[in-house]
Structures are given as structure tokens and as C-alpha cells.
Amino acid sequence: MANKQPVRGVRKERGSVPLPTLKSKKRLLFMMTAVIVLFLAIAVKMAIIVFVQGETLQQKALGQQTRNLVVSAKRGNILDRNGNVLAQSANADTVVLRPSEIKSSDVDTIVSILAETLGMDEETVREKATANLSEVWLARQIDDAVADELRELDLPGVYFTVDVKRYYPNGAFLTQTLGFTSKDGTGQEGLEAYYDKYLSGQDGKIISEADRDGRSVPLGEKHYIEPVDGYNLVLTVDEVMQSFLEKAMEQAYVQQNAKGVSAIMMDPGSGEILALGSYPDYNLNDPPRKDIPMLTELTRNKVITDVYEPGSTFKVVTCASALESGAINTSSAFNCSGTLTVDGGLIKCWRFPRSHGHQNLYEAVQNSCNVAFMQMGLGMGTETFYDYIYKFGFGQKTNIDFPSDQGGIVMGEKYVKKSDLARIAFGQSIAVTPLQLISSFSTVVNGGFLYQPRLVRGMTDGDGNYIEKYEPKVVSQPISAETSATMRSILESVVTDGSGRNCYIPGYRVGGKTGTAQKYDENHQVMTGKHIASFIAFAPADDPKVAILFIVDEPNVAVDFGSVVAAPYVKQVLEETLQYLGVPRDYGEAGEPEQVVVPDVYGKTDAEAIAALKAVGLNYLANGTGTVQKQTPAPGVSVVKGTAVLLDMTTPYGDDDLSGYVTVPDLSGKTVMEAARILEELGLKLEISGSGGTASYQNPAAGETVPAGSKVKVEFTGG
Q1: Angle at CA 544, nearest 5°, toward 542 and 545?
Q2: What is the C-alpha separation between 63 and 47, in angstroms, rounded?
């Protein structure tokens, strides 16, 4: 057999170690790599534990060795603009249970004692005392006496921590604005909710050692982490002015048998809100938490959140816009026949079937003549009028520092017909918030500047140092200072000579405007006999320091004009406020105005009543014809000479059946203005013919008896 030849390159020797093959080299390399990777993984894991998770794990370990009791931060106070406390927090004890420290043999005794002392149900206490939890809160914000009683008993597993209880010193005061907190101290409504993160602060802790079963170590260490108290909130609201306003709202609610009353006062020169609210209200220390519908209704800040059709108070914006745009001037004249035809339809003046006749600008505003304001709106045109509406802030949010700010409702410009524009001009077919209206009104009288309204002046620390302070912010300037000055003069004449006489204050110059608006049902239909009566005013007329809007929702009285059910309360609040601000009375050269006693005209005919009022120097506003069924002010009341007495008759003007008749006066030799005023006082309408001068002919003739509301055609001649 032939000898086998050795494999080339391989040398075999007896007893020698074989050289590693390529396969074995790869296996070795893999194993070394695996070991390195393993060591690296361990190293990375250790690094993560030490540098990343170290604190967390440490805290977890500490948590197993300690027990924490929360120490609530003191919630910041809410103060009025003068530093008076409106909301504050006080320390109160809270009972905490640690079930693991309560022996089963002691449960019944401890549960019984706790239930009786705290006035709680035993089953509720038992459930918490036996819960499978390391710690459970049993009762929050208990009385000091109760806490002291339990401390003396030194019950096992029963601990105490400091909690904070919210308290409102004035109870039912500034209710819808302040709001309230939940049991755990979180803001739920109003400013308490809006500024919660600033008011709440940061809670602290009491950390104590515990054993493996979670029980506190009697002699173990305890650590106290101090809470950080919240900031104080300083409001623009004045506590005294707020009290004036709330008193008046409650009086109006009762006396006018109203569904509700809302009001707001503003500093026209800054946009700061001085007082606001609605009635009825509730006690902030005991809100009706269980009655959700009632709570929702009573907590709604209606002057900010609710929209309504403003009626004649909006005419202030219309007039100011028309003056600024050049559509009218102080020499403009208007003629009211009781209606105006727009887009082929008749739109009535509020005085229909009577009319206002010929009027200058001042008289048109004094009379609140719908026809005159329709002419102003139509004269501006849609584009121009809408430009001013937006500049005055309507159709957009005010950005006030409060929840649920609303923008109102403004009809889309491209959908507006002339008839719509005419109605917007006298306050219909547009919806606004009271806040928007008082802001625009302030703009009209303050020189023409629209300010962003504010409720908060700033925030302070515990020492009273301002952390943040807010300054007045101008949003726009819709009108010039000259137009504003003219409007102040016009609005002052409304109070001295027009429908706002019930807001006249002897010694103070006051300007204002009445408003009586329609209400609509769910189907957007006008509600019969239900109105919103309002009055808006400012004072002093030459240097406005305060503006006020007062709204009476659905007054249930015979006469529900804003001049009657709202103006007297505005007068009351303004007079108190001006005295409080130290504004001196100035009676001028004539001295203090003469006071007269209102005569009793109940049961008299309209003509007899008017004659009796004029005999003592009083004016009048008549609602209907016939005999007087009610008069405001009441007989025997002392008022300033020239005050208007409202007469409520049996048959209202505007009814189809007019039972009242009047005798046509002799107008010979009278001017147009003289004739118009004479006829107006009698409930008759003037129909003008001729080229001017004085009356030379009339039909019906003097002495004839005609129904109230009839036209008297008068020819004027003589140039």
C-alpha cells in the first residue's frame, strides 16, 4: 500500500498542541465581544441608576421610610382698590387617619369617638379607618375647639395637619365677581378661578420617619418644608361704591317687582371697574352647591356674560358716530311724524301715534326720538356706521380679566338692509353686553378713548409690594375730543331738560340717557309686556369721574320706562358716590334749586293733571290718555322744581281704541317750535305747511274736540 502524503502546510508532531483554526478564532472573538458588551451594559445600567434614577429611587426609598403630611399654602387675599379685605384665608385643622396604626381591637372605640366629635356618620368613619391605605383624610377645616378636644384624647392613628379655609368677610357681597373655592381650596368661580394659579401658592410638607409597616417612629426625625403663600389680588373695585350699588340693586329688585337687576360702574378715564353685580345674589360663605341650576344662575356675572338688545341707550353711540363722521352737526334739524318709511315699510317712533315734530339735535336726543336716530344711521350709511360700531368695541370681546367674556351679536355687514340699519341706530337688531355698553359710553364722554376694561389693578406679596401692576390700556379712539365735548353737553341736557330728569341731582352736573328695550322668546319673537328698562349716566359732566349703567330686567309695574324704574336709582348711587369722592356741589349763581311738593293728581283727567303739575313748576311724562291711575313720584314727595312726573293713564297711546279726547288750542301767531310743543303737551301731532314764520291757519280749528293723537295741520306764513 502506498504511503499517504501529509497535507501540505500542516506539520504533525507527536505530543504537540494543535494550532487554532479560523472557526475557533471567530468563536473566541464572539465570546470576548459578548463579555465586553455585558460589562458595558452593566456599566450603563449602573450609570443610569446613579445619575438618572438615583434621585427617584432615593425618594422611593425615602418614601418607604417616611410619611408626609401636606401643609396647605395660604391662599392670597383679594382686596379692594383701597386695601380692604374682600376674601381671605385662615388656618384650619384637618384630621388625617393612618389605618395601619389603628389596632383592630381599638377600631370600634376610635370610630365611635371620631363620629360623635366630628358629627359624622359612623360607617363613613369606619370605612376610612379600615381602608387599605397608608393615609386618608377624614375631615377638613374643622373648628379649633373640636381639634383641641381630639388632640387631648391622643388617639392612635389620628393625626392633624394645617389646612386653609376661605372666608368672605362681607358674605353676600360682590358675589358674581369674587366667586368661591372648592373644599380643597381651588378656585371654582369668578376671580377665584381666573387668578387661581397666582392666588393658590405652593403647598409645604411635614416629613416624619416611619417603620417597615408605615407607622410613625415616635422618636424619629421630622422635617418641615415651609409652604409658599399665594399672591394677593388688588381689585379696581371700591368697597364703598360697591355697597352703594348693591343697596340700590336690591331696592330696585323689590320695589319694581323685577326678575333681576344688574349694574356696573366704571372710571371713564381708565376703564377700571369701580363696582358691578347682579341681584339676587347669595352668601359666598355658603354657596348652594347642591342646587346646580340655582348655583349656575346666581354665579353668572351678567354684566360681562349676558347679551341683550340695548334699546335707546345705544343712541349715544349713534349720535357720537354721526357727529364724528360729519353726517350731522349741532345745527342739524329733524322732523318726526311718528313713523319713517324705510325699504317700503313703516318703522314707528316710540311715541307713535303721537310725534315729536320739528326738533334740533339737542331736542332729538332729549326726546330719544327714534325717527331722528334712524335718520342719523341712514345718513352715515352701512359702511361708515359699521366702522364706528367696531371702533367702539361691539361685536368683539373686551378682553377683560374675567371668565366668559362675550363679544355680543352684530349682524353681518353684507346682510344689512336699510331697515336693519335704521333699527340698529335706535338700539334694535343688535345685541351687546352691559360691559361693552358702559365701555363705549365712557369713550363718548372721556375725550374719545376706548379703554380695555379691568377688574384687577395688580398682585402683591405678603408685605404689600406689587409683584405685577396693570396700567390703563387704550384700545382705540373712535371720536375726537371735540365730539366728546359736544356729546357731554347733549347728554347733560337730557338730564336737565329731557327724559332723564329723574336723575337730576342738585349741585351736580349729570349727563345720561334712558333706555327701554324689547325682550325676545326662544323663537326670537318679541315678548309682549316684558321689557328691559335701563339708564346710563356719568358725572360730573365737565370732568367725568364715574359712569354707571343700571338695568332692571322685566319690571312688573304699570310703567316700565327706564326713566322711571332705573333713573332714580342711578341718581341715588351717583349722589352717594360723588359725596364719597369729595366732589363739591356747585349751585351756580342761582344757588340751590327750589324744591316743590308733588301734588296729588290721582283720578284727574290728563288735562287736569298736567295743569296741576305746571301750576307748581313741574313737568310731566304721560303714558296713555284718560284719568290718572298712578303717578311717579308719589304725592307729597319733595322734588326739584322742573322734575318730570310720570302719569299712567287708563288707555295707553298706541292702542287701537283711543278713548281720550282733547280740545284743539288756538295756535295763531305761534312759531313752529311753539306750536309743536303746545300740541305735544296735549297729545296732538303737528302737520306743517307753508314757508315758515307764524301760524296763520289751522285745521281742526281752535276749540274743536278731537281724539288724542290726531294731527293738526298748521300753515305758517310771514317768512
Answers
A1: 140
A2: 23
CA 601 → CA 539, 609, 629, 632, distances in Å?
33, 5, 9, 10
To which H or E segment does residue 55 belong? Answer: helix 54-65
| Cβ-based neighbours of 632, under 8 Å, separated by 6 or more | 559, 564, 645, 646, 648
Q: Are the C-beta atoms of 90 and 229 separated by less than 8 Å? A: no
The Cα 294–Cα 308 span in angstroms is 21
pLDDT along the chain (719 residues), means of 10: 47 54 71 77 70 57 55 86 91 84 88 90 90 84 82 88 81 94 86 94 72 53 77 96 95 93 98 97 89 89 94 97 97 94 92 92 95 97 97 96 93 93 95 97 98 97 92 96 97 92 92 90 78 95 97 88 92 95 81 80 87 87 74 76 72 35 83 77 77 80 76 79
> Residue 599 contacts by C-beta under 8 Å, 6 or more apart in sequence?
612, 613, 615, 616, 635
pLDDT, tens digit, for every residue of 240-285? 999 999 999 999 999 999 999 999 999 999 999 999 999 999 999 8
CA distance 627 to 614: 17
CA 146/CA 115 separation, integer angstroms: 12
CB distance 391 to 476 below 8 Å = yes
Question: Grid coordinates standing for 252?
Answer: 330696585
Q: Is CATH 3.90.700.10 the right assignment for the domain spanning 660-719?
A: no
Element of type H or E holding 333: strand 333-336
Q: What is the CA radius of gyration of the chain?
A: 39
Q: At what angle do helices 144-153 and 107-118 cross, to 10 degrees?
A: 160
Tell me the pairing of strands 273-279 and 526-539: unpaired
Question: Do residues 441 and 549 make contact, with C-beta atoms less than 8 angstroms apart?
Answer: yes
Catalytic positions, written as ranges? 312
Give DSSP secondary structure letters for 178-238: H--B-TTS-B-SHHHHHTHHHHS-B-EEEEEEB-TTSPBPTT--EEEE--BPPPEEEES--
Q: Is 60 helix (H, G, I), strand (E, B) or coil?
A: helix
Superfamily (CATH H level) for 254-585: DD-peptidase/beta-lactamase superfamily (3.40.710.10)
* pLDDT tens digit sequence for 191-244: 999 999 999 988 787 766 655 555 555 555 567 788 888 999 999 999 999 999
Distances (CA, A) of 404 to 189, 304, 470: 11, 7, 21
Q: Which fold has domain 67-166+201-231?
A: Penicillin-binding protein 2a (Domain 2) (3.90.1310)
Q: Where in the chain do CATH 3.90.1310.10 domains reside?
A: 67-166+201-231
CATH number 3.30.10.20 is the correct assignment for the domain at 595-653: yes
Residue 482 · residue 488 · CB < 8 Å: no
Q: Where in the chain is the domain with CATH 3.30.10.20?
A: 595-653, 660-719
Q: How far apart are CA 80 and CA 83, in angstroms?
A: 5
For residue 10, the tally of other CB atoms under 10 A from its CB is: 8
Distances 698 to 69, 146, 666, 712 between C-alpha atoms, Å: 94, 90, 8, 7
**Residue type at position 481:** A
Can you give the pTM of this predicted structure?
Answer: 0.71
Chain center to CA of 30: 78
Can you spell out the DSSP letters for 669-717? T--HHHHHHHHHHHT-EEEEEESSEEEEEEESPTT-EEETT-EEEEEEE
